[in-house]
Amino acid sequence: MRVLAALLLIAGGSVPAAAISPVYSQYMTDCNTGSNQTSKTDGKFGWSVSAGCDSYQNESYERPTTQSFEVMNKQGGGTFFGAKEYFQNLDIVKGQAGADNNYLYISIKLNGLNRLTENGVATFESLVYWYGIILSKNADGANGWLMWADQPSLANGGSEMSPNTSFTALKTFGQQDTNGDVGGSGINNGLSITKSNNASAAVGNGFDLARIQDGKLDGGTSVLFARVNPVDHSEVEFAIRYSLLGFTLQDVRDIISGASGYLDMRSAKGGPKDPQNFMWNDEYTLAEAGSPYRSQSPNGTQNIYEVDTLQFADPVPEPATWLSMIMGFGVVGAVARRRRAMTA
């Protein structure tokens, strides 16, 4: 075992403190923009975003498409507001969470591994973008952590066709909000208080302190690991040594059950990904952010594009955990739905 550990360290990897065996107790589903592929009168395709799936006001986005949207003529009559390209590998369709005595486990399930264009061309890409989470004891995400995996398919010697399926600390990163200004500064703290509502909500430096580099906390102990699911290559999984980040087992249980705190899952290719710009509705006004809805932004998405988020606000137990939840903790949540309010 010592020889194996030494080899891993020489290779630039890291040795987990304990065996990583993901167990998931809660899940949520998310909007599927891929199901909105629509044929146009010119024989090409477009993708629209369903009503209620994107809300700038609540820092909740459904934009796994290119930046520009336009009015398109639907085959068979009528029009729709859509984009010409769609990314399966940015479209979050399900999130899962669970915890044991050592790790918090997070799973982000994407709709597929292809990039689709209006001409009907599907280009295989794998999970080669940015996938991350926001984790906090605060309901608005303040004083929490932004953690992510960069191109998880390619970590640890993986490739698009043969992705990395072993938990590794390589290509994982994390930043901490040390002054509590994520979500807004001072009395303006809050997910639904945006730059459009109050310019002072934009004052702050987001997740200001880099703490995790290649999984190592402050250059020391490895705390963050990621992989592509060995069974489903459209799913990225995280294992987080939460106790070293200031969380107790009860803290993470409360967060993943929706009882308290904040958990947000994200994917991104375009803009923005700068840790100091989170939350995005504080960094941009509604006009600057744009929208996939014509009534809110006639030109479509602007500075916030090629992204998707899932706020883990109303999770339900995984089917295998129903009995234990009922007998031990009670059922948390009644329906799996994404918390959104069309108030933008």
Description:
With 344 residues, the chain is mainly β. 10% of the residues lie in helices and 28% in strands. It is built from 5 helices and 21 strands. It has helices at residues 2-10, 249-257, 280-283, 286-289, 322-329, and strands at 26-29, 37-39, 45-47, 62-63, 70-73, 79-82, 85-87, 92-99, 104-110, 114-117, 122-124, 130-136, 145-150, 172-176, 209-213, 216-217, 224-228, 235-240, 262-268, 307-311, 316-317. The protein has an 8-stranded antiparallel β-sheet with strand order 4-20-19-12-13-14-15-16, with no helix packed on it. A hairpin with a 2-residue loop joins strand 15 (209-213) and strand 16 (216-217). It starts with a helix and ends in a 15-residue tail after the last helix. Mean pLDDT is 89; it is low at 1-12 and 325-344.
Strand order of the largest sheet: 4-20-19-12-13-14-15-16
Computed over alpha carbons, the radius of gyration is 20 Å
Provide the residue-averaged pLDDT: 89
Overall 3D shape = globular
Number of helices: 5
What's the N-to-C terminus distance? 55 Å
Q: How many beta-strand segments?
A: 21
Catalogue the unreliable spans: 1-12, 325-344
Sheet bearing the most strands, described? 8 strands, antiparallel
